[in-house]
Write a structure and sequence with these properties.
Largest sheet: 8 strands, parallel, barrel
Strand order of the largest sheet: 2-3-4-5-6-7-9-10
Structural class: alpha/beta
Strand content: 15-25%
Helix content: 25-40%
Low-confidence stretches: 355-359
CATH superfamily of the largest domain: Alanine racemase
CATH class of the largest domain: Alpha Beta
């Protein structure tokens, strides 16, 4: 079926520069391209971000890392100027050889992971410290000391140390302050061991957008071990940020989001157009009934492609929530009926009659023959200008991350 994604390199690069400008020259930006670059396409975005100046890319696993490295090579990005690729979500024993083969940098936090890398002396690694996320990471103190011992015995190179902040969407969060203190203690342990990582990093897109975050903290912390500070940004690169809340109830003015533009346009083409009479129903469960003669377009896209079923439009119940919409000819076309696996129906009545006086015209008859109505094959915007991932997320009760990542590669 004809469903595709377009990515603006100009916007992607502009978003990267906006993040870089927000954190300042003393802080590097790791560009996160995991999860198929948040639905934008890892192959294209890895090269685009490298051209924009990214010195690091972040991926989920070794398979994504190998794919990113291959994409950089195929795009003609020279080996000397290619970014480092950080495999952010751990690995298994069978993955160890791939790090050297594809010049990838592993993230580790357990003794088992160190053991799996024995035989790869000199390999750069980044150690993740758990300061409160409770997910990945080694705890500061005895656990971190033991891990550093293992890294040294295995002959691995401690290239970076980092943590993940869990409340970056909250201004003046006490938990963030606690995490910062714990991370400072971990960096102090590294310094006491005489280790000199090249990178100290923390934070994500919301950290950059949050006006309460002060970057001098991270910069000064990195300098204590002779390292450079780095932030890991994903969502902002693609044009979005989550809302910033306030722990004390005061109004918060984000500092980044105004500079961002959505980089993706997700599109399809009209499969067919048909007329409905008043009283005709649409879709599974007949949850939409035409209140008057209508023209509807059928789109070859559905929840199997990532178009959320929660965007379905119904009008048969008093409490029906508002449905989503797509953009046709620059105008909103509401979704009518339930979104199904591979098909979605939208109302193009008003778009069909643009610029034409159809007073008294029978929309279900042949009188439309001379009207410049919507045609099969005509382009439709599912996400992009006029309909954003934030719109979809609001209607689906989720976050823009999930909307973007749901866009299927097919």
């Amino acid at each position: 079926m004809k469903v595709w994604v377009e990515v603006s390199e100009e916007r992607l690069a502009g978003n990267f520069r906006a993040v870089a400008n927000a954190v300042g020259a003393e802080t590097e930006v790791l560009a996160v391209v995991k999860a198929n670059a948040y639905g934008h396409g890892l192959d294209r975005c890895a090269a685009m971000l490298a051209r924009a100046g990214a010195r690091w890319l972040g991926v989920t696993c070794v398979n994504e890392g190998a794919r990113a490295r291959s994409a950089l090579n195929q795009a003609g990005v020279g080996a000397a100027s290619q970014p480092g690729i950080l495999v952010m979500c751990g690995f298994l024993p069978e993955d160890a050889a791939a790090f050297a083969e594809h010049s990838l940098t592993p993230v580790l936090w357990t003794a088992e992971q160190v053991g799996w890398l024995r035989g790869h002396a000199g390999m750069p690694v980044h150690v993740e410290v758990d300061t409160g996320m409770g997910r990945q990471g080694v705890r500061p103190g005895a656990e971190l000391d033991a891990l550093l011992d293992g890294v040294l015995r295995a002959g691995l190179l401690l290239d970076g140390i980092f943590t993940h902040l869990c409340s970056t969407e909250v201004a003046h969060s006490p938990l963030t302050q606690t995490q910062q203190q714990r991370f400072e203690a971990a960096v102090a342990q590294v310094r006491e061991r005489g280790l000199a990582p090249s990178w100290v990093h923390a934070g994500n897109s919301s950290t950059v957008d949050n006006p309460a975050q002060e970057w001098p903290w991270l910069v000064e912390l990195a300098k204590r071990v002779g390292a450079r500070a780095m932030v890991r940004s994903g969502l902002a690169l693609y044009g979005y940020c989550l809302p910033i809340e306030s722990a004390d109830g005061d109004a918060v003015q984000p500092k980044l989001r105004r500079e961002l533009k959505p980089a993706m346009q997700w599109k399809t083409g009209v499969l067919a157009v048909r007329s409905l009479a008043a009283g005709d129903t649409v879709g599974y469960g007949a949850t939409f009934t035409a209140p008057a003669p209508m023209r509807v377009a059928l789109l070859p896209v559905g929840y199997a492609d990532g178009l959320r079923r929660e965007l379905s439009g119904s009008n048969t119940g008093a409490d029906d929530p508002p449905g989503g919409w797509v953009m046709v000819r620059g105008r909103r076309a509401p979704i009518v009926g339930r979104i199904s696996m591979n098909l979605t129906t939208v109302d193009v009545t008003g778009i069909d009659v643009t610029g034409t006086d159809l007073t008294g015209t029978d929309l279900t008859g042949a009188d439309l023959a001379g009207v410049d109505g919507v045609r099969a094959g005509e382009e439709v915007v599912l996400l992009g200008d006029g309909i954003t991932a934030e719109d979809h997320a609001r209607l689906a009760g989720t976050i823009p991350y999930e909307i973007l990542c749901a866009v299927r590669e097919r």
